[in-house]
Design goal:
The chain has 440 residues and is α/β, with parallel strands linked by helices. Helix content is 60%, strand content 9%. It folds into three domains: 86 residues, Four Helix Bundle (Hemerythrin (Met), subunit A) (Up-down Bundle); 184 residues, 3-Layer(aba) Sandwich (Rossmann fold), CATH 3.40.50; 110 residues, Signal recognition particle, SRP54 subunit, M-domain (434 Repressor (Amino-terminal Domain)), CATH 1.10.260.30. The protein has an eight-stranded mixed β-sheet, sandwiched between helices. α9 links the parallel β5 and β6. Bound molecules: guanosine-5'-diphosphate (GDP).
Amino acid sequence: MFESLSDKLHDVFRKLRGQSTLTEANITDAMREIRLALLDADVNIKIASEFIEGVKAECVGQEVIKSVTPGQQVVKIVNDKLVELLGGGASELEFKSKPTVIMLVGLHGSGKTTTAGKLALLLKRQGKKVQLVAGDVYRPAAIDQLEIIGREIGVPVHAERTSVNVAAIAVNAVEQARTAGTDVVIIDTAGRLQIDETMVQELVRIRQAVRPDEVLLVADAALGQEAVSVAEHFHRALDLTGFILTKLDGDARGGAALSIRKVTGCPVKFIGMGEKLDSLEVFYPDRMASRILGMGDVVSLVEKAAAEIDEEEAKKLQEKLRANKFDYDDFLSQLRQIRKLGGMESILKFLPGGRQLAGAMNEVDPRHFARMEAVILSMTKAERANPDLMDFPRKKRIAKGSGVPVEMVSGLVKQFEGMRKMMKQSGPLGRLMAGGSLPE
Ligand code: GDP
């Protein structure tokens, strides 16, 4: 899967990487092609468009890293946005209670029973004592299937063939697991071909009866956007804690994997990569992005180059601080570094004066940063190097040049002056800004 998307993205990047400079026109072309590639992979149109907008905004605001080509930088931006779209970091299971109860739900044929076995094996291999529960009581064959899987992987299966009260069966199983010192209970439930009210009601009853730590929807990735709408339905009814996407080894175009997180706000936790019981993997957004882009080398090259630049800039800034000289060029490179830091609030709040600064920076709204950058870039070289030149006529000219109201320029000048003052007095904050480490 993702092969066609990967091929198409490769083509786009091959063209871009050849360019020594990027113009608005060739970025626009590339973005159009990426958008089409996403739509072809069955990504929801709204998400594809938002993705492209995000990449474009990032491209405009990026500083140029001299040692890599602009095309390589675009690859890195697309990579980062893709990781973000896929959910950022991995969302692993938490084992807060003993036993931790995991309830699997999903449509018939999605791979639920197989996945119950796969998950049991994965957790068993992590040293956990696992118990499976046969909750698909309407199909004796489903109970048989789970028992066969249980024997194969050496995990006990709790089944009550004479009862159809799944909630009660689940409660019994969890009770027994508690006395047996079991770590994890995995409940397989009944699915239907389509979502219907009776099925949902039964699932809600089980959920209320056992209060599982995790309610995971097993969804067939081959269904594409249909899988996403199934996910939305289930999420509304059951307040899911995550997804397991199956059959990603097949020829699915991958749209479900790309959009499900963004559409539902709920993370993909595992992916099924085959029929075998050991083919369940933890879902890592960054690995998935590099599988799709196949450009891990370019991404790490740009990361390294960017880190070197940061170091150089930090050194320069340190010298300036020592000489008590902080100008708009420094401010600009600060803004860019802060933008890279992302959640700067979390760092700043530990530092004296940090809270105000985070507020003044208007947190991390990228559009705001982009506008601030545009304002500084509209200043003349002399103005940037000598902040004391700033006066009202200059502010008016700069506002016109950068297409913002003059109040925004005044606001920025004020922030700059505030920062300059803080830099002069600062201990830890200045050191952090200059690339030093946080105080112990
Ligand atoms: P359930 O009705 O949801 O319980 O679905 P099953 O567990 O019976 O699975 C339905 C079919 O999908 C079976 O043939 C499984 O072997 C197959 N299957 C499940 N997960 C995967 C997967 O990740 N990849 C592939 N290729 N097949 C899978």
